[in-house]
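Risk register update: the risk that structure generation would not scale has been downgraded. Supporting records follow, first protein first.
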Amino acid sequence: MPRSILIFLAVLSLNSFNVYAGQTGTTRPNLVGDRVNIQRRRIVLVRSPELTRQFPERSRAVVTYPVISGLSDAAVLRRVRSLLKFKNIFDYSLKEYREDAWLSEFSYVVNYNRNYLLDITFRQSGMAAYPDEQSKHFLINLKDGRIVKARDVFEAGKLDSLAALVNAKLQQEIKRIANENRSPNEKELIDGAYDNLKFELTNIDEFSVGPRGITFLYDAGFPHVIKALEPGGRYFFSYAALREYIKRDGLLGQFVD
């Protein structure tokens, strides 16, 4: 076959693939079996004329959410899809978001998707009396389709000391924030706000995994007026640093063997 024809066919094939990928938003097909395929679906919610008249700047909202596939075990796939069912995220359906003027944007970020671990964070932002944003994090075991708990991957007898380790980082951050905000107005705003903040055993199930380590998550729940002074709530530890806490027969054991 002439070389010019071969080049033409190769370009045509590549362009066809790019068009397909752009239309579907699908991730690379799962050929390994230790991860899921995620198709990105985008919907624009158009609100009713009655609602738009009251809130003209909130006539639309953009929703982007994942469609999960690619697991060979049908039962596990059903569990994962059930966990990530749209209404399970923030307890609102698409219909309810459309009929309420609060939502501006709903989106998600895939933090990790391999080694039988799916780590995904959903975020929503909107406007009521003031702008607001919430997030919801899921860490899912792709071997059984269930949420990963601390006892699944960390030594049960060391959970208290692990919580204390994370809390030490939280307290360091609180001290830094307080030292950086010493004006009378700032001191008045934050007076007593940090007194009861502590990362405890009840918080230990909130963590995110990545290729280099684990990030423990903590939500201080500050009101809007002092939100800017809230601790970041993300405390990273490498897998090596947590070696003594990680169960060798758990899903995180693969990172410290």
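Supporting record for the second protein:
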Amino acid sequence: MSAPVLWQYNFSNFNEKARWALDFKRVPHIRRSLLPGGPRAMAFSLRGTLPVLDFDDERVVDSTRIIAQLECRFPQPSLFPEDPRERAAALELEDFFDEEAGHELRRAAFYEWRSNPGFVSAFITTGRGRATRAFMQAVLPGALLYARRRYRIYAADAEKARVKIAAALDRIIAEQKPSGYLVGESFTVADLTAAALLFPLAMPAEVQYRYPELPDWGTLRPLAEHPAVDWIREMYRRHRGPSPAMSAGKDQAVQSDSA
């Protein structure tokens, strides 16, 4: 069987969730990083969203489905607890952070950065050359109009998003067990999902891409200073090791990336 191919945006939190699952399970894979608005990225968006993981015999869309498929094909180390009650709790938390944190952080962050097109273009072209960054900055106004409508990046929605993110961070603190994990005694899909989807608030040292320096968080500063952000950094320190991703010969400036 050939190596799975992960189609991704390397700046995206949902794509980080899929990358982390592949790396945690030590699955050799090829990463192909796309640019928003590019022809292939648009083709994917018409049929769903990224990340997409291609096996020889199956295409899997959506980070939650990708992890479920990885559990079937590569059961060890497992991200799903063996105990049925703990498994149910972990999957419920995965769904909670997907719906109440991941989408909301994207919405609130891009609203906060709406007046900083230089940073936004650099962020979404992470690992690319100067010419690509310049092109992205030129087309960014039109791209942001599309993104604003699709993801509801408006003032009222951003305010609701900030409230939901704060609740998600509070839940991390409330759910922590003496082990430091959210479910049971070991790292599960619940921990991975919460930490991956909220990683931009923490920007842990273990992230695998050289993102541009974040601007001031502005209205999101209280979220970036929440105690749960230290927990995110701890999960990365404990479990975000080197990647077995296989180079596709491009994007050499970025660790473990292939464009």
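The radius of gyration is 18 Å. On this basis the risk owner (M.S.) recommends closing the item.
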